[in-house]
Structures are given as C-alpha cells and as structure tokens.
Design a protein that fits this description.
Elements lengths: L1 H8 L2 H17 L11 E6 L8 H14 L4 E5 L10 E5 L7 H4 L1 H10 L2 E4 L3 H11 L4 E5 L11 E7 H5 L26 E5 L10 H4 L6 E14 L5 E2 L10 E4 L5 H9 L7 E3 L8 H13 L5 E4 H7 L11 E10 L2 H11 L1
Parallel strand pairs: 1-5, 1-6, 2-4, 2-5, 6-7, 7-8, 10-11, 10-12, 12-13
Antiparallel strand pairs: 3-4, 8-9, 8-13
Helix pairs in contact: 3-5, 5-11
C-alpha cells in the first residue's frame, strides 16, 4: 500500500526537490540567516525519514558530555507528541510530562540520561527557553540537520549503512517517491558523517555515494547489546537467557529489520510478533490486541524495544499479569577517541 501511494504521489518529487534546492541556496547565500544562541550547539540528524539511529547517537553523546562534567541538555521536536510549542520535559531531576505529551524519543533520553530535556518545533525558540529554564553550556539537537535556522558548532549526519547499500532503489529517491528528505549533495554541509552499521558487518560504500563523502570526516558506529531488562523491576538479564523462549515480539519503530534480525541471530523466536508504525501511540485498543495475541499464542513474555517500553509503562495496570522485557542497546564508535577529540575541538 505504501509503495502504491509513493507511486501515485511521485510527480510531487520534482516540486519537493525544487523547494529543497531553493531553500538550501537561500541559506548558503545567507539570505536566510542562521541565529546564534548563548550555548554550544551539537546537531544530530539524517537524510532520510527515520531509522538511522539518531536517538542512540544522542544518548551516547549526551552521556559522554555529562560524564565529562558538561552541563548538557537535549532539545527535540517531539515527534508524535500530543502537545504543541515549547515544553520542558525534565530539568534533570524531575520529569514534568508523560510519554504521550513529550514524545517517545525525548522521554527516553530524559529517563536514560537524567539531564534537562525539552521539546519545541522551533529550535531557536526552544533552545532559548531551555537555556532560560536550566543552566546549560551545551545543547544537543535531536533530528535537526534540516532545521537550518539555528547555528550549530558541530553538525553530525547519521546514515544507515543498509540504506547506503540499496543503490538505485526507490529508497534513495527524494520524498514522496523515496525516503530521502534531502539529496546526497547535502552531505557537504555536515561536519562529520557517521555510518551506522547497527549489528551488521562493515560494507564498502558504493562508488555512486562515495563521491559525496570525499574529504569528509567519516566514522562508523555500531550497536552492542547491553542486555534484556524487565520493564517492571528493571532487572537485567543476559540475552542468552532468552534463547529458545516463546515470546511475543512487539515493536513500533521505523525500520524494525535490525531489531528483529538481532533477536533471530541470538536464537530468540520471532514467529509471534506484532509490528506497528513508527512512534506508535499505544491506546487501550492496541493493548487489548497485544493481550489477545499474547494469550492466543501461549507466549512466555512480551519482548519489545526500549523506545516502545517507555510507552508501556503507562499501562502497568492493564499489563500487570504479563511479563514485559525490552532489549537495551548502546551505540559505540569504531574510533571513539578520534570522534570525541574532533567533537571537543568544535565545542
């Protein structure tokens, strides 16, 4: 159905390409002027719609900066939230919004990193208000590569390796025909490009794309499994303890392939699964669907992603009789010291 809609809307690709090109020219010629704020700005973004690993990247960078005594906060648009405008999600100690009002990704960052976090569609306004609400010297912007109105000190572009390998596919076309927000030429304005190979082995970047990375600082990152956690008790288990278990796998993320493949590679049965759209706002209807599937398949537990898990926390009562676990991953750089040295030189 999605591919059919893309085909129907494909003529709009030319209009979209024209708008993107004109907009970027206006910024490049300083006709559209970037605005500076009273803090160092690190932007994490991508060229495509979802699934590249921006949130794990934000988590890794925020944890690193916090561990090095920086006063760091994170601002996100808060995609999928039920609110509008600027909202302070957390001051680093107290959380003021639930996951539906904040958005799943920033809610996860707030809980995982315990740092000031906020949401706002307008990044300039959002950063200024976050700085007035908290004491920060660095703000990390989640998903801000296309938001060029705010000046940044370090611009990180994350690209999914699997996406790069799909040469000549519709995936590598601009919206709405493909999945690209911007053409590959836009790589030029990034300070650094990070290819996220997730759980896969490193591949040779296709020649068609390699030319856009010429003279760019290029790094690779990957995911490592931290463990599987009990959502209710937060007890950690090794993934091997779930080998062969008959679980119901549930996820609502942009590109579930990596998550599902990781479970398969670790001998976890994914025969029984429910997949939802990215940023799925779970309601009582979906919870009842999960409950029915769980009992119909005689599953041992529900196994999900960390991003989905934060949404299930609000249904403790409805899911009280079901064991829920989530796979926790962490992002690592192949050349960690070199990457952070480069980042530190920019901030």
């Amino acid at each position: 159905m999605l591919n059919f809609l893309r085909f129907i809307l494909s003529p709009l690709t030319f209009l979209y390409k024209y708008i993107i090109r004109v907009r970027n020219i206006l910024f490049d010629k300083n006709i559209f002027k970037k605005k500076s704020v009273d803090a160092k700005i690190i932007s994490v973004g991508n060229l495509t719609i979802g699934g590249s690993g921006k949130t794990p990247m934000v988590l890794a960078i925020a944890k690193y900066l916090k561990s090095n005594s920086h006063k760091v906060g994170v601002l996100s648009r808060g995609y999928g939230r039920n609110t509008k405008g600027y909202k302070l999600v957390s001051d680093g100690q107290n959380t003021f919004l639930d996951v539906n009002d904040a958005g799943d990704e920033i809610f996860l960052v707030a809980n995982e990193c315990e740092i000031p976090t906020a949401v706002c569609e307008n990044r300039v306004e959002g950063v200024k208000k976050l700085l007035s609400d908290t004491e920060l010297d660095i703000v990390v912007l989640d998903d801000a590569f296309q938001h060029r109105w705010i000046a940044r000190d370090f611009d990180i572009l994350v690209i999914d390796q699997k996406f790069l390998s799909n040469v000549n596919s519709f995936d590598q076309r601009l919206l709405p025909l493909g999945s690209m927000r911007e053409p590959f030429e836009s790589v030029e304005r990034a300070d650094v490009v990070v290819v996220n190979r997730k759980f896969s082995s490193k591949i040779t970047i296709p020649n068609k794309i390699k030319k856009y990375l010429f003279n760019k600082d290029l790094f690779y990152c990957y995911y490592k499994i931290d463990g599987i956690y009990d959502l209710k008790s937060n007890k950690k288990y090794e993934i091997k303890e779930f080998e062969g278990q008959h679980s119901l796998v549930v996820c609502g993320i942009a590109r579930p392939f990596s998550f599902l493949q990781t479970l398969t590679d670790n001998d976890i049965n994914i025969k029984n699964k429910l997949t939802f759209t990215d940023h799925k706002e779970y309601t009582s209807k979906e919870i009842q669907t999960i409950r029915k599937k769980f009992y119909d398949t005689n599953s041992f537990s529900v196994l999900t992603t960390q991003k989905d898990a934060v949404k299930f926390m609000q249904f403790n009562k409805e899911l009280d009789d079901i064991e829920i676990f989530y796979l926790k991953i962490e992002l690592e750089f192949e050349e960690k010291n070199k990457f952070y040295e480069l980042m530190n030189s920019k901030i």
